[in-house]
Amino acid sequence: MKRTTIALICLTLTASAGFEASAQNEMIASQFVHNQYAINPAFGGSREGLTVFGSFRRQWAGISGSPQSLLLTAHTPLKNQQLTTGLSVYRQSIHVSDNTGVQASVGYRFRIGSGTWMALALQPGVSIRSSNWTDTDLMEGDDPVFAENESNATPLAGFGISVYEANFFAGFSVPTLMVADDFDRRDAEFAPDQATYILTGGYLWQADEQVHLQPSVMARYDKRDDLVANVNLDVIYRRMFWLGASWQTTGDIIATVACQALPQLRVAYSYGYCAGDLKGFNSGTHEVSVQYDFVYPKRVQSPRFY
């Protein structure tokens, strides 16, 4: 009982102190290579067709009220191949708090070499956050702080820059420059100094005729969490079977398996071992995703690795 109580306190503080637009990026942390668009709108249309991605993530499984996330993204180039568009819809729940967001994107890209694109994109949207504090189980009596429920909407305004080709990608993004804090009861405001900044990069190297190696990195920085980096390596066999391992500077370790069941269909599962303050209180983090390319031009080598 004591262990559960401590874990729930941690969850409540997490929900109230940092439950904002960055939730979209947290939910894709285990499989960021498989859906670059989720963390950077400038990767919209990078698969040269209409790509739809859906995922479910359960963080710190085994703890009642631990974070759960649903994510759906879709992006495509337009008839004018230099223009791209996309949409992200996500929902995250932590204990008594929920965050639902919708973000659209519009991008422009241009060639900087044979087969190499550079892209810029804007990503406006809205996040609706609610906290049902009256559902909190208190250890002692009533507390007026938890006597009412809250709900508010926050505008989102993000952007991204990327450079990519068939075997390489690099990107920089800011999910939103509008930041709010439920714990301080502060409304959303333009606050670049408190935003989350994300940097990614990766390369696909052919080891032999059947095996490819794919190292990649993702670094996230904000004032609250400082710098958190993921270092990832995927081994791809016959462009069909993926086995990946990722290490975070927090000490967390993530293992991923994926199957390119069809040239247009990829299914992936990730398991994350928690090494933070909740170590020993949970049975890890689980994430399942499905990606499908509805339009896949024959001129594009299958599959794209990001």
Question: What features would you describe in this structure?
Answer:
- By secondary structure, the chain is mainly β.
- The protein has one domain: Porin (Beta Barrel).
- The protein is built from two helices and 17 strands.
- Strand 15 and strand 16 (265-273) form a beta hairpin.
- The longest helix has 17 residues, at 2-18.
- It is globular and about 65 Å long.
- Mean pLDDT is 82; it is low at 1-9 and 12-24.
Query: How do the strands of the widest beta sheet line up side by side?
Result: 1-2-3-4-5-6-7-10-12-13-14-15-16-17
Enumerate the spans where pLDDT stays under 50 for 5 or more consecutive residues: 1-9, 12-24
* Terminal Cα span: 43 Å
Radius of gyration: 20 Å
Mean pLDDT: 82
Per the CATH scheme, the topology name is Porin
Number of domains: 1
Reading the helices and strands in chain order gives HHEEEEEEEEEEEEEEEEE
How many β-strands, per DSSP? 17
The quaternary organization reads as single chain
Largest sheet: 14 strands, antiparallel, barrel
What is the approximate shape? Answer: globular
Number of helical stretches of at least 4 residues: 2
CATH superfamily: monomeric porin ompg
Q: What is the CATH domain class? A: Mainly Beta
Assign the structural class, choosing from mainly alpha, mainly beta, alpha/beta, alpha+beta, or little secondary structure.
mainly beta
Secondary structure: helix percent? under 10%
Percent in strands:
over 45%
